[in-house]
Amino acid sequence: MLRRLATLFRPRPKLEPAAARSAFREHYRNFRALLTANNNALELMATAEEMLQSGKPFGMAFVGGDITALTVNVYKMVRNLIALADGRYQELDQRFHEIAGRVETVVSRRPVVEGSAFVLTMAEIDRDAVDQVGAKMANLGELRNRLGMRVPEGFAVTAIAARHFMEASQVYDEINRRLQTLNADDLEALYRVSSDIQNLIREALLPADLERLLREHAARLEAEGQGTITVAMRSSALGEDTRQGSFAGQYRTRLNVALVDIAATYKDIVAGKYRSQAIVYREQRGYRHQDVLMCVGCLVMVDAVASGVAYSRPPDDPRQPVVVIHAAPGLGNHIVDGTSAYDLLHVARAAPHEIAAVRLAEFTGSCLSAAHARELAHLSVRIEDHFGSPQDIEWAVDRGGQLILLQARPIGTSAVLASGAEAEDCLSGQAEERLRMSGGVTASRGVAAGTVCKIAGAEDILHFPHDGVLVVETPDPEWAVVVNRAAAVVSASGQLATHLATVAREFGVPALFDLPGAMQELVEGETVTVDATGRRVYSGRVDAVLEAASDRPNLMAGSPIHQLLKEALSHITPLTLTAPESPAFKPASCRTLHDITRFCHEKALAEMLRLGGRYGTRDQSAKQLYVVGAPSQWWVVNLEDGFREDTDLSGPFVRIEDIVSEPMLAIWQGMTALPWQGPPAMSLRGFGSIVAQSAMNPQLDPAVRSNMSGRNYFLIARNYCNLSVRLGYHFALAEASFSDLLTESYVNFSFQGGAADESRRRRRVALLADTLREIGFRVDAKGDAVTARIEKRPVPYLRQRLMVLGYLLIHTRQMDMVMHDEARVGKFMAKMRADIQTIQESSGGENADVAQHPAG
Amino acid sequence: MLTLRNILLVDDEEDFLETTSLRLRRRSFDVRTAARWAQALPALEAGWPQVVVLDVMLPDVDGLECLRRIKALAPRLPVVMLTGHASLQASMQGLEHGASDYCLKPIELDELVEKLIIAHKDAEGSF
Q1: Residue B10 lies in a domain
Q2: CB A406, CB A396: distance < 8 Å
Q3: In chain A, how long is the greatest CA-to-CA distance?
Q4: pLDDT at position A271
Q5: Sheet holding A527-531, edge to edge
């Protein structure tokens, strides 16, 4: 680039015919398209980086969308550069494809699926089979085969079988297309897409080999069982029921399935992967839909007299040495669905497992005998010891009086335990007055305020607002779909074991259950503060209570999608390319897509200059800017329509009056709006003094520089300007494009400071970064370099920012002079802010969004 | 330069065709829609559209093949690929076969309109 520029300052041959104009225009079109693509690509990179750091949930739709769009724009740059350079830089195309290929490998990576068997029997399953049958079935097999505990007979349909089914029926493309276009905030669309996808799967044909296997295993169960049997079919998704994410209640379980219905029910359960709450859950927790493979457990139904849940430790207080048992008569999902009354028992963890506390649903006695309660406590502790963490265990007692285990998984309490201190028991005066309700059960700890939104039916859910307080009669698993956007959950009934409570805990959303009368007492639309830890509800926002709230956990960090985006971005965002002057500045050195954009941008500018020379259009040679009747320190290269049409270009100069490049004029106005009145410059060779003097007083032409590295030049067109300022060790670059279209409207600025010691340079960069942020730039400051960008804003807004940039370019160097003295820094910054204010007012553009800061 | 007026939407998703054409018409564009290649052909042969919005997967002809055919019929007619299919491979192939842009659904109408205007502007050789 610089070498090219240098040639412009030599005398050049005179014009070629005007016919060259149209060829030049075609190239200029490539140039502008390249710039627009560059800007889009940089914006998409910044968006992805921000998303990665924000902790906000995002799914593959975001990752796929952002990265595809980004790659498209980088590819456009490559193609436009090659067109601009009349076919040179082909090796860049190859380089691009290599890097894009690496990115694609990361983004479209298929999960590795273990094993080749479509079906494994209970006898063949233990924890080592987790990648074939999912955690739920693997844990159950572990209980049977390693711990010798009683579990139902049955078999598991493996992950490889699920993939076989999904791929053979060719539903993936359609599913991914539906999900890509889905806005998960639009609940109506979510329900529709979820139901369409599930139907697609239910209606798909089961591969004949898989169907035959299912029939054979069903026949085997029937032969082994006594009389007519039915089975329970349960999802056991890969990734489900692990400590990282419990997927509680997101999938489907079918009880009492007749053996003839196994194949249809299998498809139904596989389809359950796309239930609306499961889609939302994966998006929120950063799981890729295609990474979750639905294994299905098929277990002989237990003819139960009692059933329930046991926690090897209390989920709300794991230090207590008791096993918590929830028990209800018969068999059912009603405990976890939150719909029925149940017995609550605390049984000592240590033998002889004394029964410590009991709350019964019926005063006639517990449905669980003391002996069974003790046996269950004993098993729970053993299971916890075996798996190494507190467990959540489903159990049943059959008519023969045998205790049978149906499931064991880690308690999803990590979020609860992390949420910190107990609420204080004494209320502050303010809080006491506003206490509305108290009591209930802490289903998920925490404090939050929001607007009451009562949900009675599925249709109410569609209008559930962000940060509303979800108030329900019973904690139906269906409501899980909005838990992530709720500030808090209040339920008139239900307890810890419900799926909704588990989901609330995972999302770190405070939840207070078993608060009778909540639906009647709380008024739709009123603001309340819910203290789930302290089990109280207050009217209005009660800051004294809210202060105790801790931040919600970052659910994305470390999740599969978070990891995937991070890995993909490692091939995209780092800038490893060296300075353009270096011989290593070549396509082969590009290691990331960012490198490629950098290379393209730099070479595009160089090509434009080369073309100006080749087509010999006279005004593409560098002209020295003539201000107030004398030559200045600034040079101008007209790329296209940046000069007034009738400009006399016979000499080496162009007058400022002949410049019609709007972005350049904005920068120039900022540079010259206010003469420097601060402390005197330390050195006449200082950047500020030179620029200020040469801009304002052309008579003081400083040292004549023999090469471009000392020159400050504008490359311009009517709507475009690229300004390079390079003096000594100091380098700044401003680029702006104005357009009626927001896609083509932006300002980019980068600054690398020299000419001061390390700490001063860092401080200067910090001050500069702050100033730029205040006026709306997206700023990235690293070491002694700042890059700042604004994109997609209207022209008056951009013009104003460019004027400020012009001002800063002139005055930033002066910062160094005062940097050692706090008091002077304060004064300097105050003066600078006042100046910026003046400049913005003088530009006549809107400036309401510019932050006002007190002097000093 | 001729301002952009005539837009041909080719997409097999009826919902998308309906809402997008409605909203584009509200902005005074002339819009024709086609749910498959066979329906798009008459408008293309008549040289009606100034820009085409094309989905990647159509029931009768693959989107990329569609693009090839459009480019054979009218080499300078700008085609913006708009799809729910986030595939790097497909997007690069699209550009290689002369697509002006490759965008993903969902897309804001403002953004789509800008992309169409830019594609049209580029094809007209004006800036």
Answers
A1: no
A2: yes
A3: 109
A4: 93
A5: A435-438, A536-539, A527-531, A447-454, A468-472, A488-491, A511-513, A441-444
Residue range A209-251, pLDDT digits in tens: 999 999 999 999 888 877 788 999 988 887 654 544 555 556 7
Q: Do B92 and A100 touch (CB under 8 A)?
A: yes
Q: Which amino acid is at A287?
A: Y
Residue A12 burial (10 A CB sphere; 0-12, 13-18, 19+): middle
| pTM score of the predicted model | 0.72
Is the ipTM of this structure higher than 0.90?
Answer: yes
Q: Token pair of A348, please? A: 């000592």
Which residues does chain B have within 8 Å of residue A29's beta carbon, measured at their own beta carbons?
122, 125, 127
> What domain range includes position B66?
16-48+60-124
Partners of residue B122 in chain A, C-beta under 8 Å = 29, 33
Q: pLDDT tens-digit profile of B65-115?
A: 999 999 999 999 999 999 887 788 889 999 999 999 999 888 889 999 999
Interface of A with B in 166-195 (CB under 8 A): 173, 176-178, 180-181, 183
Specify whether the CB–CB gap between A395 and A405 falls below 8 A: yes
Q: Domain total for chain B?
A: 1
CATH for B20: 3.40.50.2300
Burial of B45 (0-12, 13-18, 19+ CB in 10 A): exposed
Supply the pLDDT for residue A356. 79
Residue B22 lies in a domain: yes
More confident residue, A430 or A138: A138
> Which of B104, B109, B120, B121 should we substitute to test contact with A (largest number of A Cβ atoms within 10 Å)?
B104
Q: Which residues share a beta bridge with A735? A: A722, A748
Average pLDDT over all residues of chain A: 81
Q: Determine, yes or no, domain membership for B9.
A: no
Question: Is B53 part of a structural domain of the chain?
Answer: no
Q: Shortest CB distance from B88 goes to which of A25, A60, A100?
A: A100
When computed from its CA atoms, the radius of gyration of chain A, rounded to whole angstroms, is 35
What domains does chain A contain, in order, with CATH numbers? 304-398 (3.30.470.20), 430-546 (3.50.30.10), 622-843 (no CATH)
